[in-house]
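Service request form, structural biology core

Requester: graduate student, group of Dr. S.
Request type: structure prediction, single chain
Budget code: on file
Notes: please return the result as structure tokens.

Sequence provided:
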Amino acid sequence: MFIEYDVIVVGAGHAGCEAAAAAANMGSKVLLVTMNMQTIAQMSCNPAMGGVAKGQIVREIDALGGYSGIVSDETMIQFRMLNRSKGPAMWSPRCQSDRMRFAEKWRLMLEQTPNVDFWQDMASGIIVENGKASGVITSMGIKIKSKSVVLTNGTFLNGVIHIGEKQFGGGRTGEKAATGITEQLVQLGFRSGRMKTGTPPRIDGRSLNYSIMEEQKGDEPASKFSFTDTEVLKIQRSCHITYTNTKVHEILKTGFEKSPMFQGRIQGLGPRYCPSIEDKINRFAERDRHQLFIEPEGWNTVEVYVNGFSSSLPEEVQFKALKQIQGFENVKMFRPGYAIEYDYFPPEQLKHTLETKLVKNLFFAGQINGTTGYEEAACQGLMAGIGAHNCAHEKPEFILTRSDAYIGVLIDDLITKGTDEPYRMFTSRAEFRTLLRQDNADFRLTQRGFEIGLASQERIDRVNEKQTEVARLIHFLNDKSVEPGEINQYLIAAGTPEITQKTKLIKLINRPQVNIVDLIERLPFLKEEVEKLNPKVKTEIVEQVEITSKYEVYIGKEKEMAEKQSRLENIKIYDQIDYASLPSLSLEARQKFIKIKPQTIGQAARISGISPSDISVLLVHLGR
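Core staff response, request fulfilled:
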């Protein structure tokens, strides 16, 4: 019935979809096993993609040849670039998505990807032979063979849903939990743990009074995620902002005695940066209100997501509290919020390819590794799909470092530091933020994606054209000068000193107060030069030129730091090293090196609690 596949992917959430697409586009025969074909790429929580640091990840996935950026662009209902008031290292794209269209688009793209097959069933076990994963066993008792396996089980591994004092098995509302895999992995020697996450109630938008809420419109003009020729959004749907109040808080407190979180029925830790509403009013008792974002779930549906009101309190308490929110006086609720507790596997048990250390050709991606968020899951899926393909075809490993991408930061953080709470990406986690901007993800990564057979020829041609045009425009700005009479009126209005003699354009652009778009509108010869650019990428080229020029010094410093770090990354640590036999190492260093088994000196140095003297001992032992 089944051929032997190169790669089997278990789970069809964001991680599983990217894993299947990546491995298939690189040439592997892929089987995507999902418990429900109707929930492929389901947005289980908020209907949005991107955000602070997350938007950078989506652009990196796209630059490498993944699908998340394209799907987001073609199904968005609103776009905003966050942190525009800060420097470009902090700019983060975010979109509201049409939940139904998002899932539909993902499924259609996968169905149209050659080499991807589907099977609807629960994977209840992994076939392991001679220390290698070689297939899966389903709940129907079917054995399907493969050369490598990727597990992307999300919140389904022994998932338990909590609403007040009620609790029942499930991986998502209305869907059963997955069993069997955790127990097998523990028998194989893996360490497991429990985590929890939650979601807000869903509301009937027809019952809300938007006129007394704050309207939040999208950017005009909108932008997008993908570096391909996806359409830019012309019409957008607004979100709205409202607030909780003291009445809401008092009602919520009446349910605390039935809260599964406060009464200890939930053992797993939840996401620190996305707490439930009951957790917020308990931890921040001095605040008399909390902000809520009222987000439409799509173009045509009336269903609304109440961002900021995640809860696992009894449904009647949730409903009663909602009615006290401004604009929610006549609210109708589709379903209550809930918390879900699930199994995960501490990520120190993985290599940087996301292959497990205990079982060869077995990869973990997404929430199984202790992360939270669609974007974090998707980028892990992409990397695990690449890794599984390389294993299946005996190709070299593909690893992104901390100076290559936010994806590299995320994976290195997980593997080197581990996590005991759901890990979420922030710009502050990256030491090379100026290098890892959202605008230059294609310059950083598309060549890498092309070299491994993931990014297409069309993509690399586009990047090469952009790089050529950026260099040409920078040369033009360095070569051309402007007279005081042509520009002083603008400089005065911009709040920057006048010029007294002919000045190179590049020097003006380097001033913080000067905007290149303004110069293009005021200087006909510059406008004429810019009009020669390919209209499809003209905006991207102009933005790239301005950022590269203005931040040249900072970019240079970060490149220098990255090069220093890469020298440590190039010093490999052989697997057979016996840390217990190195008495000069501190006890903590010995314990952590044995547990994590760092692959390089750079990784060893980033482990929490490791001192410079421990690194010196390692270097001496390695003969360096």
